[in-house]
Amino acid sequence: MLEYVVRQTAAYMESMPKQIRKKSGQFFTSIETARFMAGLFAIPVQPEITILDPGAGTGILTAALLERISEIPAVERVHIICYETDEKIIPLLEDNLRYVTARCSKQTDYELRALNYITSQENVFNGGLFPELGVTCDLCIGNPPYMKIGKDAPEAKAMSEICYGAPNLYFLFAAMSLFNVCDGGELVYIIPRSWTSGIYFKHFRHYLFSHGVIEQIHLFTSRDKVFDTEQVLQETMIIKMRKQRQVPSYILVTSSESNCDFQHLQQISLPYSAVVSGTDQYVFLMTNHREVEAVCLLNTLPYTLPDLGMKMKTGLTVDFREKASLRNTKVDGAVPLFFAQHIKDGHVCFPIGKDGEYLLPPRKGLVQPNSNYLFVRRFTAKEEKHRLQCGIYLAEQFPQYEIISTQNKINFIDNTEHTLSKDTVYGLYVLFNSTLYDIYYRVLNGSTQVNATEINHMPVPAISVIEELGRALLRKSDITAKTCDQILEGFLHGKNQRSANLS
Fold it and tell me: Cys-Cys link to 455, which of 278, 312, 426, 494 (CB 3.0-4.6 A)?
């Protein structure tokens, strides 16, 4: 059954240009991924099962799950509910559904709902009348559309309680699917991993973990091999959830390089509280014991930057919007405009002969005091060894300026009330230039962008300890990551030793 649907899908893809499908967020699941996802379900031993496939596309996931259910003797009847609104693909979906239901060994029927999956259930989701407009299923399998929508889009308004800013359709689909699953039922979705942290997904995470629990996570270590036929670069994961309140003791985390090597899985069983952690319910995506150790070590630290009066912020100047105010050389009234390129081997080097590295500030909002900062690049290449790439900025290096500016592709840490001391800046550098913090951040956020929100949620020691780490670095002859690792690990080892002695 599944091979037939995949062949039909391949023919459709050849006839429909990728750019047209991309506009509706339409990327099809590979046969290997579909079978893996179907295999994650614990099929209930009962006579009748209802399965739901929201945004069904050509029916690949439905076919995979139906194949799996066909192997369960206790199941006698299967009812399929598919949602799809793309008029170009509905005829193919209907043909595929007719084919698989006719050949299934179980008594099988289907509903094809050519309705907007989100807005058609708005009333029932928000506790209104007409529950018949909703749906209840035992098992839900999905590859939702990946598409940003406006905050005033009908779908966003229909599920306003889980939206913050401009949402993405994929997490609205996931939340609605969990709503549709019956108590004790299961949900398996392939989605981007961006929802696991950050303020934009906070309400979604709260909804998710108020109604269900994660039982298994599958991670892909290569972001360009999940939808390889589509040439999509996306940090993607597969998540299995159960609709229940009781939290399991452990979560199984598996990983593979691509969508074709599910036979060679890496796996680790992790305490649930280590994966879903903190008041904001961040999800830590760890795949090995080294990552577990880093997260557990740093989570013993008692503070965050905002707790200490500090904060990471994004650079102030979007240079391409201020072209008229940029200068290549120093002129009267111009201030340095610091770019990521000015961060070199832990230091901030200026000038470097870069175009537009001076700014004639047209307004106050583009400048900041010439104070002490820790600069951090916002963007790095996926293949680079360190995601967190830092530069120590000291005002004393540029005494001729009272104000400076920062381009928006770097972040900076400062204190809103007073200047950071030199010891503090060096201590912050020890933290964020270390391997432990780099691992922690990669686990927390899988993208190549360093977001200030996540950094401001990362644990840090007391300010006195940060200053002590800074003084230790100032006594060293180099400021490499290796040196930072030695200093930080020395502190953490001493901290753990002191705790052991007290106990």
Answer: 312
Mean pLDDT to the nearest integer, 261-276: 89
Residues written for the chain:
503
Separation between Cα atoms, residue 168 and residue 171, nearest integer Å: 6
Residue pointed to by tokens 């780490």: 469
CB atoms within 10 A of CB 331: 9
Would you place residue 21 in the very low, low, confident or very high pLDDT band (cuts 50, 70, 90)? low
Nearest CA to 61 out of 191, 228, 167, 215 is that of 191
Query: d(Cα 235, Cα 221) in Å, to the nearest integer?
Result: 9
Dist CA 181 CA 175 (whole Å)? 10
What are the DSSP E strand ranges found in 378-497? 390-393, 403-406, 410-415
List, in sequence order, every beta strand (DSSP E) within 84-180.
107-113, 137-142
Contacts of 77 (CB under 8 A, 6+ apart): 47, 48, 49, 106, 107, 108
The predicted structure's pLDDT at residue 19: 62
Sorted by sequence, the CB contacts under 8 Å of residue 398 that are 6+ apart come out as: 336, 350, 370, 404
132-136: long-range pairs with CB below 8 Å, 24+: 134/179, 134/180, 135/52, 135/81, 135/180, 136/50, 136/180, 136/181, 136/182
Determine how β-strand 358-359 pairs with β-strand 335-338: antiparallel
- Among 147-156, 181-190, 195-204, 490-499, the minimum mean pLDDT is found in 490-499
Question: What's CA 449's distance to the chain center, in Å?
Answer: 11
Q: How far apart are the first and last CA of the chain?
A: 61
Under 8 Å between Cβ of 230 and 28: yes
pLDDT, position 25 = 52
Cβ atoms within 10 Å of 351's Cβ, excluding its own: 12
Say if CB 358 and CB 328 are below 8 A apart. yes
* pLDDT recorded at residue 311: 96
The token pair at 186 is 């299961």
Pairing of strands 213-220, 236-242: antiparallel
- Which amino acid is residue 332, in one-letter code? D
Q: Note whether 178 and 208 are within 8 A (CB).
A: yes
Strand 368-369 and strand 373-377: pairing?
unpaired
Q: What separation in angstroms does the CA of 305 have from each of 95, 413, 446?
A: 57, 9, 21
- The token pair that represents 290 in the structure block: 């080294």
In the predicted structure, residue 337 carries a pLDDT above the cut 60: yes
Asked if 58 and 21 touch (Cβ cutoff 8 Å), the reply is: no
Q: What is the pLDDT of residues 200-227, one digit of tens each?
A: 899 999 999 999 999 999 998 765 544 4
pLDDT at 226: 47
Rounded mean pLDDT of 175-202? 94
Q: Is residue 474 a contact partner of residue 423, using CB atoms and an 8 Å limit? A: yes
